[in-house]
Amino acid sequence: MGMELGMTELPLALFSTLVPMGAGAFLMLAAAFFVKRFDAEALKKVDRMTVIPIVFVVVGFICAFFHLANPMNAFNVFANVGSSPMSNEIVMGLVFCVVAIVYWIVALAGKLASEGARKGFSAVVAVVGLLFCVFVGLAYGMDTIPSWNNAMVPLSTLFFGVLGGSAVGMAVFYQAGVYDAADKQLAKVALVVSWVGVIGSVAFFALNMGTASGLANNMMYGSDVVSAMMPWIVTAVIVMVLAGVALMFEIQKKRATFYTWIVVVVTFVGILLARLSFYGVEFSAGLGI
Description:
The chain contains ten helices and no strands. By secondary structure, the protein is mainly alpha-helical. Helix 2 packs antiparallel against helix 4 (51-65), helix 7 runs antiparallel to helix 8 (184-213) and helix 8 (184-213) packs antiparallel against helix 9. It is globular. The chain starts with a helix and ends in a 9-residue tail after the last helix.
């Protein structure tokens, strides 16, 4: 039980950490395009570095394949679209990947020179990315595992996407060399997006753990399961808050590029610990609630 159980789901924990971080980055990118007018050269640099969130998503999907006993079974998900939450998640993920990659290719080709086209397309990718984050959480809506089958799960994966995406989005700007902390409007929007991610991530993760703690069957109490995971749960919360603080310093004052990658790593660790804790409090209803 406890973290040992969580570690058995490490491939899925990595998937549900990396994918929201990559998908959520497009929210930060879209927000920046709406409040700051980048020149053509800056946009070219940003578009080249947009490969970063796409890599996060691709690596996340690769991690998920390691969870399958037979990777060829992945193709069976399409047979259950509409009836299986996991199939819906994968299909939504593919839709996001297509939209994001098309956006990236069109941007690299210089076809988004128009400010309106840039804002509109980036907003579409951001919305689809956030919906994908929600579907990642909805995939756990199983009656047999009530600790996973509640609204807090998709809400937590949504805000993990906002938090993780803020870190990855800032990495895009720093790696492109176009971020200017003196631009107060951009800094303000980036700060709001990142702290919405921190507050939402911590709140819904904690509520999910609280929901699990209130469960019981004729063999054990959910409170005992959550108590066993409490050191990891508390650590996850602390690291996610630290990630928010690190993002705040990054956004308010220009930092060296290596600093932004430290922020990405800290954010990744915080979300990963939260995901491992989530798997560690798996509580079956099979013995009767």
